[in-house]
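I would like you to sit down with the pair of lines that follows and say whether tokens and residues agree.
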Amino acid sequence: MSATLAGLKYEIRDLQRENEVKKVAFSASLLASGSGHTGPFDTHTTLVFKYVLTNIGNAYNPDTGFFIAPVRGVYHFEIKSGAYGHPSHGSATVLVKNDQNVFAAWEHQTSGTMSSSNGVILSLEVGDVVFVRLWHHTRVYDNEHNHSTFSGHLIFTM
């Protein structure tokens, strides 16, 4: 085999590895088992989405609730929050990038079921952290039907 052909094979292998890093997508639900409300708490609280449905690229950590950008690029994120109505506790989650609130999903009604959702496209650098906070004095509900979720994926690298 010629040196040129061997070099080309190594270059192809390197490009394939680089392409693998560019595959980033996750979706997780709040509870791994059981059902119930999380919250209310007296302070804003990081939500840890334990039931991972998809985690291509392993950028989402179900032990911390943090998504850490593995590559510089443009990402899409969504949060969905479900809850049962309560006279004094709504449902409010906030998507956070590097400790800065980006957007919220909020709903409050005194009875019945409620849900809220929101989505955003963010430009991230390697190591940027994205996660979801439960707003103080609010709550979210989850069960095997995945009412409260956090999802994201890489759209393209930069």
Q: What stands out?
A: Helices lie at 3-21. DSSP finds one helix and 13 strands in the chain. The radius of gyration is 19 Å. The first helix runs from residue 3 to 21.
